[in-house]
Amino acid sequence: MKKKQTVKIQLKQTFPLTIKRLGINGEGVGYFKKQVVFVPGALPGEEVVVEATKVHPKFAEGKIKKIRKKSAYRVQPPCPVYEECGGCQLQHLRYDQQLKEKRDIVIQSLERHTKLKVDALEIRETIGMEDPWNYRNKSQFQVGNRDGQVLAGLYGINSHKLINIQQCAVQHPLTNKATEAVKRILQELNISIYNEKTRKGIVRTIVARVGIQTGELQIVLITSQKELPKKNILVEKIKTHVPEVKSIVQNVNGQKTSLIFGDESVTLEGNDFIQETLGDLQFELSARTFFQLNPEQTIRLYNEVKDSAGLTGAEKVVDAYCGVGTIGLWVADKAGEIRGMDVIRESIEDAKKNAARHGIKHAKYEVGKAEEVMPKWVKEGWKPDVVIVDPPRTGLDQQLLKTILQVKPKKVVYVSCNPSTLAKDIAVLLPKYKVEFMQPVDMFPQTAHVECVALMSRVEK
């Protein structure tokens, strides 16, 4: 009988460590006495002295006390609050090396969760950005008040301390400008700021979103109640200081919750939405509409999906987890028919509007779970040739995986934002499908996030 491995590392113990690779959250991974140790901020190839900060039965976490041997790819992060903020994890790693490490994170996930011969797979180089800064089209910054000073930013790593962010290095300059202006105006007008502890005060969050192609800007103020004092002066001042603004919206969220948005939105000025274009497609983005945060890379991602699907104009295509229909509409010109489903009713309404706006008549959208809707279509005699899935981080529902194995489309194009769940889902599909290739895409430079398109084709028996 195997003896249970006992942890040899003690809390606050310091020890030397060689970092072997990057973990899925961007932390350095090394082994001390065969025990795995995760060290935020450490890079592959570095020799560090670490202090154990947490000890778990199967692994330990540590912090760097000293770097004895530095990685050749270590760089100075440009962001002044990088260490505290935690919004980015990899600013201290040179960008070309970030792309290599992201490909490696995909490989590690496959090695851990599948029995595939990873060396024999076609895992392509990560598609990066020419300029990996200022790419995010939307910011959601919490508002706070410290010593009479209005702050806006994110909560620090593992803490509830609000980090004031003035110029976020990965946000589009217009969202930075808008947030700073609103912060100043709230201060000037002495409008009360929500306090999470006492649950008193009004303004909770400033959301800014820009149409990167159109230059249109939307500002959403999330408030704890419907009454917003000095509302008219506030709106006028925002218009003066941020002339690019096309839409100012108030969203009411009085709940004790970590969710940003409440159910009620009121347009205070301008349109209910801003316009954005992706390639030849136009979209109306209202305050709560989901839209990809990096449109430049989204186009590259969707082109990979389109190439992978290899459509000839005749295929029946399912766009599962379709949201507002973006992926399906992107491939529609090459498909015989598109059918999409999503559990969010507003998204399906938007998908129908988007299809109509672009004159796409061969797209049909339904509210419901993919694992329930797809079998119903098959029963009605409509069987897909290609299934495109773009699930949340948790991966595909087990029932949907079973459905795919029963329906047996010729191809599955899997768009993943989490390499671990991608690998686990591939393992389930493997008996009946083979992996043709995997293409990582860097949607969020400077962070540990990895997006990946995997093409799987049915194994013909």
TrEMBL record:
Domain named TRAM: residues: 8-66
GO MF annotations in UniProt: 4 iron, 4 sulfur cluster binding; rRNA (uridine-C5-)-methyltransferase activity
The EC number(s) this enzyme carries: 2.1.1.190
GO terms (BP aspect): rRNA base methylation
Enzyme class: transferase
Binding site for S-adenosyl-L-methionine: Q292, Y321, D342, D390
Membership in a protein family: Belongs to the class I-like SAM-binding methyltransferase superfamily. RNA M5U methyltransferase family.
Database matches in NCBIfam families: rumA (TIGR00479)
Record-given protein name: 23S rRNA (Uracil(1939)-C(5))-methyltransferase RlmD
Gene transcribed to yield this protein: rlmD
